[in-house]
Amino acid sequence: MESKIMDYSRYKYFAVLLLLINSCTQLSNKSNDFENLKYELHDEFEIELKNDIKRVFILTEEHCNSCNRNFAKLIENYINDKESILIINAKGTQVDISNFLKTEVENKNLYINRNIKMKSDLFNSTKVFFLKDNNLDTIINITANQIEQQFNYILAH
Question: Could you report the per-residue pLDDT of 82-104, keeping only the tens digit for each?
Answer without folding.
Answer: 999 999 999 999 999 999 998 87
